[in-house]
Amino acid sequence: MSLLVGFAGAVSAVAIAIGAYSSVVLGIPTKVIAVGAIVMVSAIHWFGVKTGGTAQTILTTTKLLLITFFASLLFR
Known about the structure:
Structural class: mainly alpha
Number of strands: 0
Strand content: under 5%
Oligomer: single chain
Shape: globular
Number of helices: 3
């Protein structure tokens, strides 16, 4: 039951946050970006756990590279 109800709030909150930040840069309404983010992640996981794991590894690597990049700017 918590899979259907409990996580829906967290997923929607993260999607709205993604939409709020991205709408400033892209000029697209927040709700459109939020729905697009949910559909995109759902589509990735539709293809299986391995595909979802690969996508998560790519996104995590990208985040770590960006953190490293911005942290290195502090020491210039």
